[in-house]
Amino acid sequence: MWWLKDVWVIDPSQKISSPQDVLVKDGNVLEISSSMTEEEVLAKAQGENLEIINGTGKFVFPGLIDVHTHLREPGQEDKEDILSGSRAAVRGGFTTILAMANTQPPIDNRALVEFVCRQGERAGYAHVLPIGTVTKGMQGSELVEMADMKAGGAAAFSDDGKNIQNAEVMRLALEYAKLTGFPIISHCEDKNLAGDGLMRRGVSSARMGLRGIPASAESVIVARDLLLAEETGGKLHLAHISSAESVELIRRAKARGIDVTAEVNPHHLIFCDEEIKITDTVLKVNPPLGSQADREALIEGLRDGTIDMIATDHAPHTQAEKARPFAEAPFGIAGLETALSAVWQYLVKPGKLSLDRVIEAWSVSPADRFGLAGGTLKPGTPADIVLFDPDFSEVIDPAKLASKARNTPFLGKTMQGFPVMVWVEGRLVQRDRTVL
Ligand SMILES: NC(=O)N[C@@H](CC(=O)O)C(=O)O
Ligand SMILES: [Zn+2]
Ligand SMILES: [Zn+2]
């Protein structure tokens, strides 16, 4: 049994944000209360071994749920695999991760869904839930067998990495997915507008002489998908929203009652196109980083609830791939191990976002939208818990990363604010930044 003493508990699902004590027993949260005596706790332990953690100055919140991670297994295990990715997850404070379907082969049938579930269970760290593709082979034309994949353990459907260009296929997908109750996760990118662009089109791309991707490459598909969601009554989730224009479209759609949710990645909240260097591909990501005005609009959208969730879009790549010239390197930023710290340091500490809102957006909302366990510390629920130390500082050292990937903009930097203990179903899986 665990007694987390004098911690600041943030649980937006129960409207708690105050100093409390937390008891964890038999894999579940037993009790949250602000007045526990040693006698009471010992009586509850019923002779079981009791570990007391002094949490003064630290936060406890429900484990983060990341609805957008690329774990690369099967097929590209040199970039990441389910074991390394789920270890990286608990190191970063995530107790549940949704694994994107753009593996090799893509997760487009029940057998593959079951394979990902099984590898996640074997790894035994964060809960790993597979996202199935929307179309067979991610080819954008023929729908997968959604009900069968749901029965196998899929949690959502997405052709992430590629946009479904054919609007009729997207319409059918939204309609058909209603049978499962799952959202279709859309990677909004018009292929023709994006062309072979390398970064967001604007002053910076012009200055660097790099081919640009206009903001409209995203927003025209956001608009299309919102219209299709309205027409079908289907559930839509928009991945990695990156522009002010998209935020405004979502705001209006929500006012109309369209069943849409949206996520934003930490890198779009923290960096902008001006920071990209042609000699360093680490900020080469899809969708590309926008302008400062986009970044501000994304923060405002997250604050006012237009954007529901934060998600890492953890996109691991090998060092050899990322060492290629800018035009040839793959898009993607690895995020699992640094994302929470980055959000703490760049957004919460400077007062741009409250920690309560961050937990709501990274734990409660994902659980609600995708119908997942977690996102709460309600007594009787599985203890997926994070103890976060805002003062803990660490150099992002490649030797310490649990992920196979090194493509993070924070490599070598000193960061502050980290999860220092993480439990999955009451089992301690990370302590003092070491995965157990
Ligand atoms: N985000 C990225 O830049 N890359 C992702 C694909 C994606 O999320 O669209 C990847 O799979 O590497
Ligand atoms: Zn994508
Ligand atoms: Zn992605």
TrEMBL record:
E.C. number(s) listed in UniProt: 3.5.2.3
GO MF, one annotated term: allantoinase activity
Cofactor(s) this protein cannot do without: Zn(2+)
A Pfam family: DHOase
Protein's name according to its UniProt entry: Dihydroorotase
UniProt-annotated binding residues for Zn(2+) 2: D160, H187, H240
Source organism: Desulfosporosinus youngiae DSM 17734
Source domain of life: Bacteria
Active site per UniProt: D313
Keywords: Hydrolase, Metal-binding, Pyrimidine biosynthesis, Zinc
Function according to Swiss-Prot or TrEMBL: Catalyzes the reversible cyclization of carbamoyl aspartate to dihydroorotate.
Catalytic reactions on record: (S)-dihydroorotate + H2O = N-carbamoyl-L-aspartate + H(+)
Gene Ontology terms: biological process: 'de novo' UMP biosynthetic process; purine nucleobase catabolic process
Cofactor note: Binds 2 Zn(2+) ions per subunit.
Recorded name of the encoding gene: pyrC
Binding residue positions for substrate: H70, L71, R72, N102, N286, H317, F331, G332
Domain Dihydroorotase catalytic span(s) in chain numbering: 57-246
Signal peptide segment: none
